[in-house]
Amino acid sequence: MNLAEGHVKVTREARTSRHHREYPPLAHLTAALACAEGDWPHDDWPGPYDPVSAHLLPPPYDEPRWFPRTPDVVVLRCGEPLDELPALLAALGAEPPPVLVISPVDEPAQVVGALREGAVSYLVDADYTPGGLTQALQGTALRHSALSPRACEALTEAAQRPDHGGGGPGARGGGPGAARLRALLSPRESQIMELMSIGLGASEIGRRLCLSEKTVRNNLSNVYAKLGARGGTDAVLMWLGIVRAMPGSLV
Questions:
Q1: CATH topology for the 3-146 domain
Q2: d(CA 120, CA 73)
Q3: What is this structure's pTM?
Q4: What is the pLDDT of residues 175-188, one digit of tens each?
């Protein structure tokens, strides 16, 4: 399929304002696929019923040309995230759209590094389904972190390493600072963050805890405010003890 022409028709009821998206599954999103032509792995995505319009944004990314408008999400599909992500973010300007990285690389330093550089979400090749990709885009558009299982494993491994404050295999990283952070959250918020840190999205968390998706998102908003987090990625990294709480947080 020609991605530049792969626009999806949606009903008027399925459209929501970019500034008032409370229910991402109903939102019609636009995505720019930052990769070389022929490198996008999903010929059948977006499908005819996906609430997503996608177009190709081939390198170099020095002057991105949006079609038909600034996208809700940029998807960087690459082999070396720490080499390619900074150049892409620089090209996107001072207020870039949220970026989702797709890569075959699942080495902890690369995954953590990409999230620290500014990626909101990280999926490892062959570690998600096309439907999962759509859900990841919906979460990323709201700056909620989406992580595939192998990306979650990489974060957990990083959190257990001594250089990230961890205490070795089986230990939760971060030391006293991270323990104080977790104590700050309510039991419900802690449950939600634990599930989010293993890669579950708001709808999946809601099903696990018998909560509405809106209630989960409201709890996440409270968590972000308490931690001074800019979104789900920051909150997950803080929860795992990989980064410290932001200045001005309640921790």
A1: Rossmann fold (3.40.50)
A2: 10
A3: 0.75
A4: 555 677 778 899 99
